[in-house]
Amino acid sequence: MKSVKILFIEDDDLLRSLFSEALTLDTERAYTILSALDLKSGKAILQSTQPDIIVLDLILPYDKAANQNDLSEKMGLNLLREIKQDSRLKSVPVIIFSNLGDESIKKETLKSGATEHLMKSETTPEKFLEIIKRLLQ
Amino acid sequence: MRQPIPPESLRFIRHQLKGPVTVIHGYLSFWQTDAYKKFSPEKQREFILKAFEATENLDKMINELSA
C-alpha cells in the first residue's frame, strides 16, 4: 500500500475530520493526515515536512493558542503565495478548500498557483477522495 | 428600522454558516451513497454524533445572528 502525507490547514475540527474520513475509503493508499488549526502551525509543519498534497482553507486564524482568532481570507491566500515561492515546496499541489467561491477569489487563488479551488459545500467526501486520487496519479 | 447588513459582512456570515451545513451534508452523503457500510458501527455512530454536533453549532450561530 502506498503511503501519502496530506497536510490539512483548516480551523474547523468537524470539517477536517469529515474529509479525512473519506480518505480511509481509498483501498490503494494509506494516508497520514497532518493537521494544522491555524496559519502559524501550518507554517511550522511545512518547515519540517514535505507533504504530498496541501489542503488549505482561506479564512484562517493566525494563532489559535495565542487567541489571535481574527479570521481573514488573506491568511490562506498569503500562505499559498509563500508556498509557491518556496523552491522546496512549490511543486506540492495545493487544494484551496473554502466556502468562499466567488469568481474573483477563485481567479486569485488559481493565479497564485493553487491546483484546485474547491467549494466545501459543493464537495462530498467521496468527490474529495476522487480529486485527491486524481492528483496523486 | 434595522440597518441593512453590508455585503462584505453578508459574505462572511454566509461563509461561516456553510461550515456546519457542509459537515451535516457530508456525513449524510455517506448514507445517500451507501458508503457508510464500509465503516464500522462505531464509526457510523461517531458520524451521526458529529453531524448532530454540527446542527448544534449551526443553531448557535443563528442565535448569535438574531441576538
Detailed description of the structure:
The complex is a heterodimer of chains A (137) and B (67). Chain A is an alpha/beta fold and 137 residues long. Chain A has helices spanning 13-23, 39-48, 73-85, 103-111, 125-136; strands at 2-9, 29-36, 53-56, 94-98, 116-119. Chain A has a single domain (2-136), classed as Response regulator (Rossmann fold, 3-Layer(aba) Sandwich). Chain A is built from five helices and five strands. In chain A, helix 1 (13-23) crosses helix 5. Chain A is globular and about 40 Å long. The mean pLDDT of chain A is 93. By secondary structure, chain B is an all-alpha fold. Chain B contains two helices and no strands. In chain B, helix 1 runs antiparallel to helix 2. The longest helix of chain B is centred in the N-terminal third of the chain and has 26 residues, at 7-32.
